[in-house]
Amino acid sequence: MLKLLKMSFLPKSTDYGLLILRVALGFSMLLLHGRGKLLNFAATAEKFPALFGLPSNVNAGLAVFAEVLCSALLIAGLFTRFAALMLACTMGTAFFFVHKSALVGEHSGELAMVYLIGYATLFLAGGGKISVDRE
Asked: Which of 14, 43, 54, 115 is the most buried (most CB within 10 A)?
């Protein structure tokens, strides 16, 4: 019974876990967030906040860079730590500055926080052995 609860019969593989995390976060960010921003960039840039002394179109461009290009790099496991860092910075900005650290309510940043935690994990752990980087 204890073996069943601990699931010790399953092989331990950090590399498969990192692969699943990279691909899931990468595809969801790319398809659900980055793709729309890229395809409707002009409309996105108009609605984007001007943060850190940068105009809204520059911030929108940086977000598209992270959410599209860095997500693709993450999926492949190429320059994984760089891609995860760029995405973590983007999600950190979204959570702390755009959503004002709110985890509940109408303008909740809960999803940005979940992404931030995942990207921070990949930044620290790297892409694993099942990646182009093969760390």
From this structure: 115
SS (H, E, C) 52-103: CCCCHHHHHHHHHHHHHHHHHHHHHCCCHHHHHHHHHHHHHHHHHHHCCCCC
Query: pTM for this structure?
Result: 0.91
Count CB atoms within 10 A of the CB of residue 30. 19
Dihedral, 98, 121, 82, 113 alpha carbons, nearest 10: -10
pLDDT tens, N- to C-terminus, the chain (135 residues): 777 888 887 888 899 999 999 999 999 999 999 999 999 999 999 999 999 999 999 999 999 999 999 999 999 999 999 999 999 999 999 999 999 999 998 899 999 999 999 999 999 999 999 999 986
